[in-house]
Fold:
Amino acid sequence: MRFPVTVALIVLASGQLRAFDPANQDDSQALVRHFEPRPNPLGSPIQQGSFDPGKGETISLMGGAEVFQMQDSGSFELILHRAYPDRQLKVRNLGWPADTVYRQQRPMYFYTAEGDTQKGSIADSREKVAPGTFLLQFGKVESLDGLDALDGFVSSYEALLQGLAKVSRRIVLVQPSLYSNEGPAGALAEERNNILSLYREKIREIAVENQFAVVDSFTELVPTRIASADVESLRAAILRKNHLWDQYYRPTNWAFLFGDRQHVPSSRDHRDANRRWFVEEIDKLPALIAEQEEMIWNLAGGGENE
Structure:
């Protein structure tokens, strides 16, 4: 006798879940919506071998786990600031461990104009990333799908690049690194690298056909001329900036911030239900990031006080 009621509850619950199901959000080109909608603000496309960032330019890093982990060492940013100490560059790591050319899955309403429809909810109000130079490294994880998936990889990568090119044509494709062949998994790595090498060849073809620059590694972009700087202090400042950016770009408890749990009491000040304390905390971060970048520029030798 209770069976129909149980079914009804399940159906009702399923309907409620679908309303907030991240699968309904199109993340096939989620990276495109991260940026301010002003095309090519800082110059013409980057030609092969002519990477020369402008003063104040934002350098956005995109890719999967390897790009995500770059924030932990700050090594690329270190040599970048030392090579261009007077440029006051802003580096934004947009890497996400599971990102591929097929999908860059983000929490529900992540950098979307429309947010949750429940009363009291607001859309993602964070500052979007300024367009500038885009450095993309994809293809390593995708190559595990084998050669049968190569054509699909090419078409999806080109579609993503076309979307990003509407924001900025200053795009550089970074080849994915090969798998290490050291240790007991050496034979497997060799097999995977044979396939990955074909993906790398296709990435170079994509770059040439679409008139984008392509390099074998991030460090290849940086010239050998390196300005003197207090390396350890500079690295420490970069890591502090990266920590602040990580808090801003990948905030914890997203559902309570801009997701589908904004209406619950725990997302609000217990003394004033109209006050969104979590949003207030997030809104403080851009100023703190800017302060840290001023320190980075001064330590690199390009600040106003140098």
Strands lie at 58-63, 90-93, 133-137, 171-174, 213-215. The chain has a mean pLDDT of 88. The longest helix spans residues 186-210. Residues 25-225 form a domain with the Rossmann fold fold (CATH 3.40.50).
